[in-house]
Amino acid sequence: MCGIVGYVGSGQALEVLLHGLTRLEYRGYDSAGLAVARPGSITIAKAEGKLSRLKGIVDPTALSGHLGIGHTRWATHGVPSDRNAHPHSDTSGDFVVVHNGIVENFRTLRDQLELRGVTFRSDTDTEVLAHLVAEAFDGDLTEAVRYAIGQAQGAYALVAMTAHRPDRIVAARMTSPLVVGLGENETFLASDIPAILKYTQRFQLVEDGEIVTVTEAGAAFETFSGNPIEKKPFTVDWETDSVFKGGFDHFMEKEIHEQPEVIARTMGTRIRAGADGGERVALEGLRWLDQSPDGVNRIRITACGTAYHAGLVGRILFEQLAGIPGEVAYAHELRYGNPLFEEGLLTLAISQSGETADTLAAGRLSREHGSRLLALTNVVGSSLAREADDVIYTWAGPEISVASTKAYIAMLVGETLLALEMGRRSGRLSPAEEGELVAELRGLPSKATRILESPDEIVRLAEELAKWPNVYFIGRGLDHATAMEGALKLKEISYIHAEAMPSGELKHGTLALISPGVPVVAVATNPQVHSKVLLGLQEVKARRGQVIAVAFEDDQEIGSVSDHVIRIPRTAHLLSPILAAIPLQLLAYHTARRLGRDIDQPRNLAKSVTVE
Ligand code: G6P
Fold it and tell me: Given phi > 0 = left and psi -120 to 50 = alpha, else beta, which region is 154?
């Protein structure tokens, strides 16, 4: 949700800013802009639309200089347009800011500034910050930023520079992520690490409530109230390769194909040989499990989007494997829903990015009410990881495509490991039962590879789906969660309306929409209710709907009630969501491709939603 990059050093700022914005474009692509400072003047270039438009208009001569900031926008206040694109400046043009987040009291601040004679040139909340910084500046940019954030309420990362001090950038963080990268005679700022990983592997995180003054010599941290903070840099050894497409046409396609490896990596060293020779899960570092394994009476899972669908699967796993009842709540509903808290409630917050504002807020609320907060996240050092009592990392690697695929699969594996660990500790699962499921888990990477190796049928079906304005997804139990995720994938990237529901619900209303040919995608891996699913599909066929089933390869019956069957290798039912999601991801991908959609950056969406 908006990406920020900054540079000060001996090199040319423009190259770093454009590279960083390219990496950050997944965070928003309504507009992009940058500003480069030289003693006495700042030059701004910005354009509505994707970064390619900005790249088309930048003039390297006009924008030469060693200090600069850049921004890629996901619009919150003010439509996507050139005038609302960041950076924003004060009236003189000598003070320039970029901002990620929302200034909640911007209307009041704007009215006050207008009364003092300021004329606004955009509809954004951000512009008030540029004017406030300019108003307060008396030679010290850090103090001016402190004044501005003292006036502003909300969640933000703010980055400012001025032509009067062209040796520094000053940034402040309240909620929205920001990281400093340390180089030789150069220092970087960005919303995330991959944006500047090409230049350095040494980083310092900016925490909530901190101001950082960045010069080519490094970064000086202090609290909002001015107390200096000592901060040790940390090193990351991620592969920069993971942020390239590696021969695939889209990041989404690449990330789908990484899933066999991701399943194996998420399991990683978390599976060990047990005393009886069988394998067992060894999830470490979960202090509450060590201290009071019996202390959890209920699990409340909270998340948004794809992570919420992972939560739907998790609830069933925790109930079935660990005997712990659970509930799943959208984080944006939970935070304002006056939820009840009780002794022994564990809150599990799931978030790929670890930065989703609603998920963070729901997690915080839960902790404030005494619930232990466990994070399941992909991003090491993310806000959620730092705020939670315990963390399980999914180790999916950087996910660039806005539509989540490998991060989802890794969440499912992480939840399975946790449910197995809790099931063993509670005595609900025998070593033999655990061993059996672990052996099945071990087999998933090669089964996932088999699904990926035969996409022809899916490509053909995608051509069919691309003709329809509405597609329905059904399934029962775990299959319903998979259906929800399949429908979301199709909506996100193909822009076809897709709706998922439990199979049994179809006849209570939606069946009215089934006319000849209308596609109904049925996920049918649940053995307990297989005959019921077949009955439901008969009802669709009776209305001459077009049934596309996802079923195990040895399912003998499904063909009689389906027009097309996508077959997946058989696995234990509790693990089936991990495999069944893959053909639905491919179906969405190929449908969107057929329709010529912008697959990695679908319209109106952003990878990480760091505002309410
Ligand atoms: C955005 C993304 C979704 C994602 C959701 C939650 O809406 O477009 O793909 O599932 O945020 O993100 P998180 O990082 O919390 O998993």
Answer: left
User: Residue 292 — very low, low, confident or very high, per pLDDT cuts 50/70/90?
Assistant: low
- 101-135: per-residue pLDDT in tens? 888 898 999 999 999 999 999 999 999 999 999 99
Pocket test residue of 411, 608, 610, 612 for ligand 1, highest count of atoms within 8 A of CB = 608
What is the arrangement of strands in the sheet containing 228-229, beginning at the earlier edge strand? 88-89, 95-103, 154-162, 169-174, 210-215, 218-223, 228-229
In which element (H, E) is residue 83 found? none
Active site residue 304: no
Count the helices and strands in the chain (H runs, E runs).
18, 27
Residue among 353, 490, 605 whose CB has most ligand 1 atoms within 8 A, to mutate: 353
Greatest alpha-carbon pair distance for the chain in Å reads 79
At residue 327's C-alpha, the angle toward residues 321 and 330, to 5°, is: 130
Dihedral (Cα; 286, 290, 296, 301), 10-degree rounding? 10
| Residue 562, φ and ψ in degrees, nearest 5 | -125, 150
| Distance from Cα 351 to the centre of ligand 1, integer Å | 7
The CA 53 to ligand 1 mean position distance, Å, reads 26
d(CA 293, CA 271): 19
Spacing, Cα 608 to ligand 1 middle (Å): 6
Ligand 1 centre to CA of 577 (Å) is 19
Per-residue pLDDT tens over the stretch 58-84: 999 999 999 999 999 887 777 888 888
Ligand 1: residue whose CA is nearest its atom 5: 305
Between β-strands 345-351 and 372-377, what pairing exists: parallel, antiparallel or unpaired? parallel
Ligand 1 pocket (Cβ < 6 Å) reads 304-307, 351-353, 356, 359, 402-404, 605, 607-609
